[in-house]
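Assemble and predict.
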Amino acid sequence: MTAIVSAAGFENPVHEAQATFRAAMRALAEPGLAQAVTPALLAPPPLQPATAALLLALADFETPIWLDPAALAMDGLADFLRFQTGAPIVADPSRAAFGVITDAAAFDGLDRFAQGTLDYPDRSTTLILQVDALAAEGAFELSGPGIAGRRRLGVTPAIPGLARALAGNHEMFPRGVDLLLVAGDTVVGLPRSTRVTEDAACM
Amino acid sequence: MTAAAYNFAYLDEQTKRMIRRAILKAIAIPGYQVPFASREMPMPYGWGTGGVQVTASILGRDDVLKVIDQGSDDTTNAVSIRKFFQKTAGVATTTATAEATVIQTRHRIPETPLQAGQVLVYQVPIPEPLRFLEPRETETRKMHALAEYGLMHVKLYEDIARHGHIATTYAYPVMVAGRYLMDPSPTPKFDNPKMHRSAALQLFGAGREKRIYAVPPHTEVVSLDFEDHPFEVNRFEQPCALCGAEGVYLDEVVLDDRGGRMFVCSDTDHCETRQAAGHRGTMASPIAAGEGGRRAD
């Protein structure tokens, strides 16, 4: 129950939702660039502030949310999201409009999320993946729409299998999952359009 | 008279969320048309309801909005939409391209190069570039799914067979990021090169047809052509009659019923900025007394 007691939604839903959306929009339009998510809300653990803000800004009764076991295990978190957004919490990740992975160590690929179809590639999951830290230097090299040339991205901790999953995700374009990496109040976008390669020497 | 109270930027929050999610998917799949539940707006279809819904969904209190109609800040459509957002969102507005954070446009891209962080919102009448070649949505959807765009090349080839050159001058089809065929909206093909690797985010809203699509910054936007008939932009024989600008898109203005006419910048902000800086065309108004000494260049 502690999660609900210590959590609160937006103070000013109209403007904070707008600011949060714009951060997500910039994040996906310029993949790899860190964007600040400013609303000061009390995020229920294990959600980080930007994760909670993104879900409150973008989710509603039309968008099923899938939570990873670590988040589901937290008493009251699902109730917090249901109350704040009206979104159904689903057990099947392939039905989810939004997926939330709070425990990056348990990351096991993108295949089980909705990938969209060739006719409707937009019908795919947007996955929020929480990590400890994001940096403008690091093992990942990004290129593609939204990036002039190349851009680097560091993700801490290193997530086994993430690079391969991202490469496979891009390979399927225009189908695929769109990622929002969150660390604290920072969000970085990795849409399916971004080509991601891992530089082993930097690890 | 009491003014009705609207939510910020007119649309209700659930509608904004739905449109915002469509915008995010559109950005993630550059050039793909995302269906969305377009709402009735207090203006008729065809007057920019798609662009207005996109603008209303992205606009924040700190934004500075510019609205142009065929490059002009002062025509009916532009003035009405600017006033609409002044009234419902209370945002600052401008006519200066460089000062705007969000620019809603009908059928032009400003001459001043757009900067990183700016958002250009296009009003789109027919989002489907293949629609006049294939009326069935089920078929055009399959063509996009399979990236089967031969039909459009046939259309451009027929232009060449009939006219000796590609006669399409506006809504000239482009390939986005090497995957999706996209209608750039009825902008003159003169503006197509400005879309290529633009620093600004470009969003497209079609209200009646209920589609949103996007071109992220720094994205390849290539106009379709043939090796022996490369894409070319329109050329003008004379500079702007008011500001003397060359290499810009000009509108023809009929002056009388004896064949008199002039060509002036379609981008009014660009033209006024140049005139304020002292540039004069052949038909510019006489130099004001205070500005004596400047001469036409």
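The longest strand of chain A covers residues 133-143.
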